[in-house]
# Entry
Amino acid sequence: MNNQNVDDHNLLLISQLYPNVYTPLVPQQGEAKPARRRKRKSKSVAVAEEGGAGGNGWFRKRKLSDEQVRMLELSFEDDHKLESERKDRLASELGLDPRQVAVWFQNRRARWKNKRVEDEYTKLKNAYETTVVEKCRLDSEVLHLKEQLYEAEREIQRLAQRVEGTLSNSPISSSVTIEANHATPFFGDYDIGFDAEGDENLLYSPDYIDGLEWMSQFM
DNA sequence: TTGTGTTTTACGACCTCC
DNA sequence: GGAGGTCGTAAAACACAA
# Structure
């Protein structure tokens, strides 16, 4: 048995003893899937091939087991940062290389950050959509109020014409008719403006005061 | 079965902090 | 200067539709 075979044999034994912890790359019996050749070697594999420290093949595994991931997740929930003491403890508890634990935390932090950005985006999007709906509602309210104003103007005009008819024989009737026809503002003449308090209001433009004077004739 | 998109593991480059 | 962080990306594993 050469060195590689010894390593594989050891891995097989370990994976049988700790099926939830060790997930060796060594193909199991009946497992036909050949490992695809990597362009970039992982450090542990490179070390193993060189026969260096820790390079006896014991850590030649890829996907972490469910149990390992579960323990790492628990630890991550505790604290997203990884002090070297915790890293070493986790590594020995899970039978992993401390480097693997560090890498797992790096990747987990990246995923967590992505998720946070995604959540933030969703929240902003919802807020934007709510604002758009509210704007539509306000626009429609403005339209409704303008219609009401228009109806009020029509009513005032009708009243004015009735007054004109009533006073047609009076000496001042001609001047009232002229002024009313000249000064009556119509719906389209109103616009958004600002009152004395600086609040937005529907104002008669171009001359709101004239409008008020015109109204006062009928009060 | 195969092509394709996604997830997971791992690494190098670079940065910050002590 | 070393340890440990982020960022970008390669590559393997995995999921899944066609």
User: Anything to note?
Assistant: Residues 35-36, 38-40, 42, 62-63, 81-84, 102, 106, 109-110, 113 of chain A lie near DNA strand C (CB under 10 Å from a C1').
